[in-house]
Amino acid sequence: MSKTTNAKPKAKEADSASAAINQQLSKEQKIELFRTMMRIRRFEERSLRAYQAKKIGGFLHLYIGQEAVAVGCCSLMGKDDHVITAYRDHGHAIAVGMGMNEQMAELFGKATGCSKGKGGSMHFFAPDRNYWGGHGIVGGQIPLGVGLAYGIKYKGLKGAAMAFMGDGAVNQGAVHEAYNLAALWQLPVIFVIENNGYSMGTSQSRSSAGELAKRAEGYNMAWDTCDGHDIYTVRATMDKYLKLAREKSAPAVIEVRTYRYRGHSVADPDNTYRTKDEVEEYRRTKDPIQNFQSRLLAEKVLTEATIKEIDQAARAEAESSIEFAEASPWPTVEDIQRDVYWEADNPSKRTSAGRLFFD
Ligand SMILES: Cc1ncc(C[n+]2csc(CCOP(=O)(O)OP(=O)(O)O)c2C)c(N)n1
Ligand SMILES: [Mg+2]
Question: Which of 131, 144, 168, 290 could form a disulfide with 126 if both were Cys (CB 3.0 to 4.6 A apart)?
């Protein structure tokens, strides 16, 4: 993985467990964070097997290795906070509370899926949980995240939008247009760069000049970096900037350093741009679930027995989501044009003119 030259102090990473936001966690809440990370990992592993069995078509971008980022960030959400991300979106969906059944059904293309089987892996949505997807155009979700923040401010709410992107997305022009408006209009948005070191098969050092989050300085925005393998650090860092966003409507760019163990999409070759040793080294020394597990064992929050129980329950839940997806109906032909344009679904309220579909 390419090295970044981070000039920022890392003292906060030394003991993020002592940050107030982590100190105030109850034993049950810590177990819940751990359980959510474990559920993401088991869901992803099970969906990979289903993909290999040809039950899932299209792409499948797994979140394995990055669990502490989505769970850490989403665990801080209040009722007026919103989340939007790219196509690597299963982890965030579980982190905001979406069930495995509607996720697996979506992967299978079934009508009971979270997007009625019409979105697939890259387009998980749960507006009722303030989760706005699931977007396939690299960086395309970032202006939309600024729109969410604009809505929050316009309505006078004390919320914030978290707009997630990868390390490759930072080079998209639309991201810079979004930064500009967020800073100009002082919108409550946190741009979260999940830096897993690669965009497809291109390492950060081959694609990006300078330090990623520091680009915020050009827009007079706050920025920071943090270790994304440690959920306490993610929470401590994000809490600070979420509070500034909610209370002072201040935007920020946060780079969270993480790693993905699987190929970009599971159908992609994974041995051409990085070594097996590199992946193994991350697994052995930085795995976010192992890290948190060790912490919680030391804190006497978990025991070997409870870890096993949580793991088995997550596996069983993933397995039963497969059964649910298998048993679910396919979307119908009649349904194909529904949920595409709001105007088509609500003709009596339509105010625009023009044709919505091609003949
Ligand atoms: C505008 C656009 N260009 C190219 C692609 C093809 N593409 C899909 S994912 C990806 C890499 C993005 O990497 P990164 O932002 O680091 O996210 P990660 O996959 O690591 O989560 C590319 C180039 C695309 N989907 N959209
Ligand atoms: Mg990346």
Answer: 131
Neighbours of ion ligand 2 (CB under 5 A): 166-167, 196, 199
Show the domain range for 223: 29-329
Number of domains observed in the structure of the chain: 1
Q: Is residue 186 part of a domain?
A: yes
139 half-sphere exposure, CB direction, 13 A CA radius: 14
With 0-12 / 13-18 / 19 or more C-beta atoms within 10 angstroms meaning exposed / middle / buried, residue 41 is: buried
Question: What does the block give as tokens for 84?
Answer: 């939007």
List the one residue out of 201, 252, 261 whose CA is nearest residue 226: 252
Q: CB neighbours (10 Å) of residue 106? A: 31
CA of 193 to the centre of ligand 2 (A): 9
Q: Mind listing the pLDDT tens digit of every residue in the chain (359 residues)?
A: 333 444 444 555 558 999 999 999 999 999 999 999 999 999 999 999 999 999 999 999 999 999 999 999 999 999 999 999 999 999 999 999 999 999 999 999 999 999 999 999 999 999 999 999 999 999 999 999 999 999 999 999 999 999 999 999 999 999 999 999 999 999 999 999 999 999 999 999 999 999 999 999 999 999 999 999 999 999 999 999 999 999 999 999 999 999 999 999 998 877 789 999 999 999 999 999 999 999 999 999 999 999 999 999 999 999 999 999 999 999 999 998 899 899 999 999 999 888 888 87
* Residue 169, ligand 1, Cβ within 6 A: yes
> Could you tell me if residue 8 is inside a domain?
no
The span from the CA of 120 to the CA of 110, in Å, is 9
Nearest to 297 by CA among 18, 36, 27: 27
pTM exceeding 0.70: yes
Q: Which of 87, 121, 138, 198 to mutate to test the pocket of ligand 1 (most atoms within 8 A of CB)?
A: 138
CATH code (residue 310): 3.40.50.970
Ligand 1 atom at minimal distance to the Cα of residue 61: 19
Ligand with an atom nearest the CA of residue 91 = 1
Q: How far apart are CA 25 and CA 27, in angstroms?
A: 7
